Amino acid sequence: MLKNWSLQTKIFITYSILILLIIAGFVAALAVYASKMVQKEVYTGTERLLQKITEQFDGRVKDMERINVSLLLDENLAKHLYNPAGIPDLGVQETRKLANTIFSINGPFSSAYKIVAFNFEHEYALSPQSVDNAEALFQAGLEGIPIFAPLADGDGGFTLLPPHLDNWSQLQVPVFSLSRKIKDTAGKEYGYIEVQQRYSDLARLYEPDPAIDSGFYIFDAAGELFYPRPSVDVSATASGSAEDAALYKPYVAAGSSGSASVRNSAGESMLLVYRQSPLTGHVLAIAQSREQALASVGRLNALIVGAGLLFLLATLLVLHRSSKRLTLPLRTLGSSLKQVTLSNLALNLDHSDKNNELQQLDRLFRRMFSRLQLSIEQLTEAGEREAKAQLLALQSQINPHFIHNTLATIGAAAKHGEQPEKVAEMCRQLSSLLRYTTSSSDFVRVEDEIEYTRNYLNLLKYRYEEHFEFEIDIDSELKDIELPRITIQPFVENAMKHAFASVPPPWHIRIEGRVDGGRWEISVLDDGAGADEAALESLKARIEALFSRSGRSEDELRTGPDSLGIVNTYARLMLLHGESATMRIENAPERGFKISFGGKIKTGTEGGGYVQGDGSRRRTAFDSGHSV
Questions:
Q1: 255-262 CB contacts, 8 Å cutoff, 24+ apart
Q2: Are 327 and 11 in contact (CB under 8 A)?
Q3: Of 243, 288, 233, whose CA–CA distance to 265 is shortest?
Q4: Going by C-beta distance under 8 Å and a sequence separation of 6 or more, which residues neighbour residue 278?
């Protein structure tokens, strides 16, 4: 089915899928990002609101504390408070004077709902407000009023009493209060001071958004519910606030501030944000319906998806017109190519429509035809280089001294009666080595070349034993890459001959091969003495001169036999891989010498050579460029 599709259809479908994936990924990423940002903004806004509420709550407590302290610091009032036995005998005028003092400390705007200084033992209660229930309280006794139990048992410091009904008045108004004992410096108790605030003031701290179901809660330092207080607020039980608070309690008790996703008593998902008062240790919390608080996320996501669909539709329309216009020159070119013959190497293209693509194709074909002759000349030159490389390859054969030393090692091992398997293995590896060097193939696979080099290294290992170590690490993708025969072994031989000449054992050689970005590279590293910069530059110059047209004689190019293996290898790599062949020679960062060579990995559609049965190399094209 795909074979019957036109090029325009294939281009349109291919790029449509690609654009669809890109837009879908972008829309999804944008939607996720927007959701996180909106959720973060909701959390942040709630945290700012809760911080403001906490500051207001602390401000009220501080105001109550200020009144408490001011009462004890007032000289006229303190004189009587520290003499509680005389207060019941004071006259009306003196009692009113004390009440007015308390009123003046409270301030003209009556920041506190009620202020009471009292002593159950001497049965007095001083307050500028109504205390019409004092006699009943005195009869019940301090121990008979549960709300005063924390105050009586305390150490005399400030105690924030939870919401309760105003015991001093028969109206029983819900209040919360800050109280403390009246004590002198010796610790003697003279009574109590209670500063009350209306319970309704706590409700006014939080003004909920009518569009979002939410609740406001205050937990005391012990984790008990401070607000809403079911004992004084019937609506807290009716609305389920108390049950919800019990579910939120484990979260607010876990830390001083934070947020969590929880469920209320009705099973609804809620966003819980809480913050601890630094003054009292109480934890204030706001719980909001997650669905309603994040409703804007759904609307924003719908807007993003809609915009993405519109953009996709517009992009597909543009792509369809572009693919049609793009393939028009190819259809025109196809008609013109049918008229090209060997005697007519030109395209008869109509340039009347000023189609830049057709004009460019015409120029490119003309250049291609003109390069045919140049390619023939390059092939001739490549043949000359191949002949020169073959001459140099004759000198890359295995060193006779190595064969002599290997046979001596085998003889010594056999003479001393060492393991026969070891002697047999050495003979097998030497035989394989010699057979490989006499092979008629000029080009081999990396896998075969590595096996040949491994045999060579193993024989060196038998000779030098613990004084010599080697490693081979070649990527599996490299095994079928073609190389000139006996490419790697000369570098190993060069290291053994020169790199380790002035370096005491143990010696180490590492061979590694990697594939990266459509190119392959093989490196041979040793930890020998390395080479000085002058020698490196000289060696690079010889490699450059081998392929330059400077007219140097062959004797000049062969100067420096120590570098012959490197020059020879690069010559044969150029013959096989053309301008893609590279070679680097450098000193290792710490110690030693490194030679790296490589080329471009040819795909099935690229031009390139292959190995014939007679070992000769045939190429459809060859470029003489090279790099070092």
A1: 256/283, 257/47, 259/43, 259/46, 259/47, 261/290, 262/287
A2: yes
A3: 243
A4: 58
Q: 206-293 with 376-603: one CATH topology? A: no
Question: Biggest alpha carbon distance in the chain?
Answer: 139
- Secondary structure class of 319 (helix, strand, coil): helix
Comparing CA positions, the residue from 598, 23, 607 lying closest to residue 306 is 23
Cα 115 from Cα 126, distance rounded (Å):
8
**Whole-Å CA distances, 492 to 15, 399, 457:** 51, 12, 8
- Burial of 230 per CB tally in 10 Å (0-12, 13-18, 19+): middle
Tokens representing 287 are 């719980």
CA 310 vs CA 17, 276, 298, 303, 349: distances in Å: 16, 48, 18, 11, 40
Spans of all domains in the chain: 2-60+296-332, 74-197, 206-293, 376-603
What 8-state DSSP symbol labels residue 4?
G
**Domain 376-603 is of which CATH architecture?**
2-Layer Sandwich (3.30)
- Bridge partners (DSSP) listed for residue 159: 179
CATH class, 206-293 region = alpha beta
610: its two tokens: 């292959």
pLDDT tens digits along 189-234: 888 999 999 999 998 999 888 888 888 999 988 888 999 888 887 7
Say what the pTM is: 0.49
Closest CA to 18 of 323, 325, 329: 323
Q: Which residues contact 385 (CB under 8 A, 6 or more apart)?
A: 547, 571, 574, 575, 624
CATH of 74-197, one of 3.40.630.30, 3.40.47.10, 3.30.450.20, 3.90.1300.10: 3.30.450.20
Are 422 and 413 in contact, with CB atoms under 8 Å apart? yes
- The pLDDT tens digits for 268-308 are 898 999 999 998 889 999 998 888 888 888 888 888 899 98
What is residue 548's three-state secondary structure? coil
* Angle in degrees, 0-180, between the axes of helices 446-464 and 400-415, rounded to the nearest 10: 50
